[in-house]
Amino acid sequence: MLPVFGAISGSKRTTENMLLDSQDSEKLKTRLCGLSLNSPLVLLSGCVGFGEEYTRVEGFSNRDVGAVCLKGTTLEPRLGNSPHRVYETPAGMLNSIGLQNPGTRHVVDEILPVLDFGETRFIANLSGSTIEEYAEVTRLFDASPIDAMEINISCPNVKEGGVTFGNDPDMSARVVEACRAQTSKPLFTKLSPNQTDIAESARRCIDAGTDGLTVINTMMGMAIDIRTRRSVLGNNQGGLSGPAVKPIALLMVHKVYQVAKHHDIPIIGQGGIVSSDDALEFLVAGASAVGVGTGLFYDPLLCPKLNRGLVDYLDANQCSSISDIVGTLALN
Fold first, then answer.
1. Any catalytic annotation for residue 155?
2. 276-285 and 302-316 helices cross at what angle (nearest 10)?
């Protein structure tokens, strides 16, 4: 396992030579559903708490990323799943947190006011067990300073709601439609890879009013303790993330892009990004921005390395901006 993830911190760059000058920083700037981003990097929901966790790490800055997706939030507080909640796997990680969160009103009233919106954009992650709950969470966040919202219809580690919504295109569209009615702020819909036709789901969500798509959420997985012959995770199943899912995520982004490009709908591509090469693959496949999550657990200072690698690639290929490479995949 460790040799696989060793590539994350394998760069010989020092902190000093990862710094970008103003000209380099300008090349990384991009726009996503009307939002101006410092970088195409987006910190993924569930990986950075409510935007403050990694700011405690020396050298980490939210200014290095374009946006931060806050932890999945439901209308009422949730304690989450029973332990164990996290388990390391070859080239990946299973998590079964179960959407533990303090509830929407607490996030809006207590957490958002202390976030520095001058550093980066913040995206709320909307979760719920019913369509009505999704709509109410959206309404509450709409009245807040949040920059955008991500509809989580595809969480694989809760026992109700998420998986059912995310794997049924009809239900997915109904959730998006209900959320759309409650806000004019940018809406992203997080698509599940655990379904038959992700492109069809994307099309239905676009028709229902989503402004962007997040591709993909974690894959459903399990780990077994052969000594006890029991599931390791308290919830029995959880979401698999990390390099193990990257080939699947790339294909899903490519498939969704074939639909999204005709509607000018941007994609946040994610799944196992631990190097600038990984990020570039997602951009070439059709993503306009890329999500970073599990890689941060192994290298909290990963983002400056990714930014530096992206700029070096743009320079080497005579590209002036990230948009020059989005969707440039040439099929055999």
1. yes
2. 60
